[in-house]
Every structure is written in C-alpha cells, then in structure tokens.
C-alpha cells in the first residue's frame, strides 16, 4: 500500500503542483480507489474536486462527474486541460463533431473525466454509449441538490441512482459543502449509500467573525463600514437585481471601487465585473446570490448581507467566501422584520411542499438572526456539529447586550 501512497503523492505534485494532501483528501481518494461508496461533506474551498479528479486520473477508464452548472464544469475542464489531462464535458451546447469526439475518447479510454449535467445523463443516446464504455466510478458534485430539504433542490438529481445502476455496478462518490443531518440522510437514502464511507470535516471557520446588525440606516452603516475598510476586498449580497444596482451606484458615488453582479447583466459585463473583482480592479462586488459558486478568491475580507438570506445554508456558503486564506473575515448581516416579510411573499406562490420547506429554512434563519447567544454554536449546531463552549468571536460573545443589561441592573441595585 505504501507504493500507492507514494504514487498518489507524486501525481499530486506532478499534475496539480501541490506537495501535501489537505485534510481527508488522501483517505477519501483511497476509499474511492478501493471501490467503496464514499460520501464527503466538507466546507467550500476545502478541496473536494481533487478527491475525484486525482483518482479519475490514476484509474483505468473514464470517471463520470455529475455537476449542476455548465459554468462549474467548464471551469474544471479548462483547468484540467491546462494540466494536460483529458477531461471534457457533455451537454447540449456541444456540436455534433465535439459530441463525437467525446464519445470516441470515452470509448477508447483516453478520456479521464467526463463532466455531465444530470439532464444530459437521462438522455437515451448518452446512456447507450456510457453502457459500452469503461467507467471507473461516478462522482456526484454538489450532492445536496438531491434533497428537497436542502436549499438548491434539482429534481433531475434524484434520478441519478437509477441511471448509474443502468450503466453498471459502479462505486459512487458524492460531495457537498452543505448538508444538515436531515439532508445528509436524505442524500444517502436516495443514493442507497447508507453504508458509504463518510468523511465529514468540521464546518467551523474560526477566522470568520459573525455579526447581525438591525437594518436601521443600513446604507449609512454600509458606507461607513466600507470606507473604514478601504482597499479591502468584499462582497455585498442583496436580494434583488435592483438593489444590487442601487447599492453599487451608492458605493461608487462614495468613492468606493464597486461593481454590480447579477444574472440580468449581459454575459460580457458580468464576466468583466467578476474579473475586475478577482484582479483587484474593483474592491467591492455587489451581487445577488448568482455570484460566488466556484469562485476562489482567498483574500475576501468581508461579506455583507445587505438583505437577509433565505436560508442558513445560503448564509453559510456566502459568508464562507470570506477569509479563505485563514486571515480576517467579517460577516455582517443587516436584519429587519420587513425583509423576512418580503422573503415570505416570494414563497407564497410556490407549490405546497416547496413552500413549506422554504418556510422552514427561513424560520431557521430568523431564529439565528434573533439569537442572543453564541452565533457560531447555533450555526454549527444547524449543520449537526456540537461546539462545547461559546466561540468568543461573534457579536453575541463579544458584545453580550443581555449581560450588559444585567450588569447595569446590578450596578444600579448596588448604588441604591
Ligand atoms: P471545494 O470544491 O471543496 O469548494 P475546490 O475543489 O474548488 O474546493 O478547491 C479549492 C481550492 O483549493 C482550489 O484552488 C484548489 O486548487 C485548492 N486545493 C485543493 N487541494 C489542495 C491541496 N492539497 N493543496 C493545496 N491546495 C489545494
Ligand atoms: Mg466544489
């Protein structure tokens, strides 16, 4: 086994240029290479992609990687190609010629990773050729999309198990950055992976400071905070495209290098604004939640929720983009009852189950925002992790208003 370890480490260095595995990466890779079903729950930025990329490369045949977004697939394919690895994606944007190349490379075994959206996987013609191919294993990225209790449910994801069984008897590795215990169970059940090797690392981001501020004079507060942090990189999340534009403009007239990002912008502008933020030509990006998936900027110093998020899953992922380098990361949410009413309105027109779930997610978020005790303890608890003492690094730990009130009462009592 020692030689396998050595080989993996050599390939890690050779292909990816990393000299060390991070966290459980090596154990996870061994698990999937030994043919075991494997379930990985690690925070964003932990390095989940490598957990299927490297075994795909060292294995014979082609690994199927299921991913929900074309942009995510493209990112990874481009990166792997730049490393000299044959990786391609299969989706509806391909021409006939490109499609044939993908099929040819899969069938002759030269393709190491085949990225595919679940929608394409269900197509008969794709299934037929995959049955003939030598598939090493199946990776399901963003596996929380399987669960309707999660925050990003995709019905097509629930069909994956059946399709995989149709292709062959293949080991599966499922990966996600957010799963409450309930969602985790739902995923494992749906994938028939109750017996899988489970790798779950702590969700605790010790360098992130969590603070909730009442949404009073929020614009003034926002400008003041950003001016005090001039030159630092930050993200301001807003609920609507309109607010994104408004806040970006407000910051610009206040001499902040800020740009908007939302799905309503034309693709070139969106790309250009994202690049400007990544290349430090802009300090602040004002964005809807469309911004951030798969974006890897290590020195984001603050993430501000100008409007309250829809769920703690979303909140955790979005705040998680701060301080990836392990240094300072301030997470500030402006919170008002009006925002919750607005979010509730969005839910009203949804089908019943979806609406009930959205309400449940929102309720959890509200109770977090209204909390008087350690934020981190509550947040981690939500994801099934127990913190045995208060974190000492959130607003409630550092500015315990309740305690101050009690102390003041004590002082008053002593005086009289
Ligand atoms: P996740 O999918 O868990 O959010 P990614 O797979 O996108 O994370 O990886 C996040 C970053 O970590 C990437 O820039 C990746 O290159 C880097 N990374 C992954 N593994 C290692 C490692 N062993 N050493 C150093 N950097 C790593
Ligand atoms: Mg990922």
Automatic annotation (TrEMBL):
Annotated Helicase ATP-binding domain residues: 29-197
GO biological process per UniProt: DNA recombination; DNA repair; DNA replication; SOS response
Catalytic function, reaction form: Couples ATP hydrolysis with the unwinding of duplex DNA by translocating in the 3'-5' direction
EC number, UniProt record: 5.6.2.4
Domain Helicase C-terminal: 218-366
Alphabetical UniProt keywords: ATP-binding, DNA damage, DNA recombination, DNA repair, DNA-binding, Helicase, Hydrolase, Isomerase, Metal-binding, Nucleotide-binding, Zinc
GO MF, one example: DNA binding
Cofactor dependency: Zn(2+); Mg(2+)
Enzyme's top EC category: isomerase
Secreted recorded as keyword: no
GO cellular component, one term: replisome
Family according to the record: Belongs to the helicase family. RecQ subfamily.
Protein name: DNA helicase RecQ
Classification of source organism: Bacteria, Pseudomonadati, Bacteroidota, Cytophagia, Cytophagales
Segment of the intact protein contained: 5 to 420 of 736
